[in-house]
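Researcher: Sequence of ABC transporter, ATP-binding protein follows. Predict its structure.
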Amino acid sequence: MLETVIERRGVEIPDKPEKMSKTEENERNFGNKDQKIIMQVENLSKTYFQGKIPVHALRCACITVRKGELLAIMGPSGSGKSTLLALIGTLEKATDGKIILDGTDLTSVPEKLLPRVRREKIGFIFQHYNLIPTLSALENVELSMRFSRVPKKERGERARKLLEELGLGDRLSHKPSELSGGEQQRVSIARALANKPAVILADEPTGEVDSKTRDSIVRVFKELSEKGQTILVVTHDPEVAKECSRVLRITDGVIKDE
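Model: Prediction complete. Tokens:
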């Protein structure tokens, strides 16, 4: 899972054969041509080694994502879903290919600048929320902005507004232990939105909630998408996928666009 990658790298949560014809095909097939392309994944590959044996986690992936798209990523365990999110989230280095997000080639950004890219361009939502237990809902959302040097007054105002928009206006001072699973996930959504990212990466965000809570989270995602927020959701749940604007399926590291 993406959380495991982050733990391994010690990242603080708040804080290439010619294959382009597939990207061009995706460009032709996807509707809404007027929407700006926010992300282009070009011939992206990731190979690990188990001893001397290569394991191809992702093979020449080509994806075009438009602003405001709610994109589901599905596939069996070990198919490459979390690897794709980890590469887009700059938590892993690609073996080959490019990821161009909001005009920035993420694969060419120096290592020392990657934390800034993550703060400014990418929001993360996790299955297990990853909220700081000693902080209130408001403080959890505010904290993610401190690392981006957002002024204190603006941090408070922005965090409060986000939580109120997500139906948590009466839970601002509550700590995670005082919130339901659905409420905690909405706090994590507010945290992901706090720095106004180009894309939100959600790794199994409904994996540990009941169907009612799942549906409420999906409604939030759809509302955000309608407002222009781009969201990529890794999910095993067909009920989540059917509410998305598009579905990518990954099998053995190969992506197919439905």
